[in-house]
């Protein structure tokens, strides 16, 4: 009987691990063979950068979407760096439109779009009301082009950019960076903010040189049944 329960526990653990979905993002120009190699390494989704903080479409990201698809990736997301610098004269909506126009003109589709909201961009001002309005415009315009829109951010960035309790995006999924090298549920390592009770994706490692000779940031889907 004891052996039976041990086997049952091991099977349950094995099932949990098997159900985990791992993915990656990268700004590197990746070949089809490298994408195929990464798929063989267990990655099931790819997140391409489609818009840069310079206020331009990311052509490398678009090419990567093509190659990821050719390599057999069926789940491809995009992430979007907004531009708030003085030289970027486009509104939030215009920037989103540029990204979706580029996708459409190249015959490309993505499953989800993540808006990258972090202080590391260096272009967010101190006027939180202005930042809130800009992000709201990003979200509203993005939802005209795609059903599934999420936010990439963490506590400090959200606090400094829009205020820790601003919750306009709390019905969007959260992609949360915490580089602890290990995928985890974040039950004790995550403090709710912005109305998000928990993240959807956990980015747990960055700038990893994979066996496929590609530098990647690694993420995992905390609850693949939910999205």
UniProtKB/TrEMBL annotation:
InterPro entries: GH, GH25_Enzymes, Glyco_hydro_25. One of its GO terms (molecular function) is lysozyme activity. It comes from the Eukaryota. Residues 1-19 form the signal peptide. PROSITE patterns: GLYCOSYL_HYDROL_F25_2. Keywords: Signal. GO terms for biological process: cell wall macromolecule catabolic process; innate immune response; peptidoglycan catabolic process; signal transduction. SUPFAM superfamilies: (Trans)glycosidases. Belongs to the glycosyl hydrolase 25 family. This is Lysozyme. It comes from Panagrolaimus davidi. The lineage of its organism: Eukaryota, Metazoa, Ecdysozoa, Nematoda, Chromadorea.
């Amino acid at each position: 009987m004891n052996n039976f329960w041990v086997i049952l526990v091991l099977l349950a653990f094995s099932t949990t691990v098997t159900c985990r979905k791992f993915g990656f993002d990268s700004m590197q120009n990746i070949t089809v063979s490298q994408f195929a190699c990464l798929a063989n390494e267990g990655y099931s989704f790819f997140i391409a950068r489609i818009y840069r903080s310079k206020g331009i479409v990311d052509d490398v990201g678009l090419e990567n979407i093509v190659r990821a698809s050719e390599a057999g990736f069926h789940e491809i997301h995009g992430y979007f760096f907004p531009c708030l610098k003085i030289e970027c004269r486009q509104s939030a909506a215009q920037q989103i439109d540029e990204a979706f126009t580029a996708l459409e003109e190249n015959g490309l589709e993505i499953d989800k779009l993540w808006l990258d909201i972090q202080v590391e961009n260096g272009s967010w001002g101190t006027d939180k009301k202005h930042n809130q309005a800009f992000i709201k415009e990003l979200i509203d315009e993005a939802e005209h082009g795609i059903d599934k829109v999420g936010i990439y951010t963490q506590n400090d960035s959200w606090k400094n950019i829009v205020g820790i309790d601003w919750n306009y995006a709390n019905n969007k999924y959260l992609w949360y960076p915490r580089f602890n090298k290990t995928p985890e549920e974040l039950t004790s390592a995550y403090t709710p903010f912005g109305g998000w009770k928990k993240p959807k994706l956990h980015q747990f490692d960055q700038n990893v040189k994979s066996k496929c000779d590609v530098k990647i940031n690694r993420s995992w889907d905390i609850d693949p049944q939910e999205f």
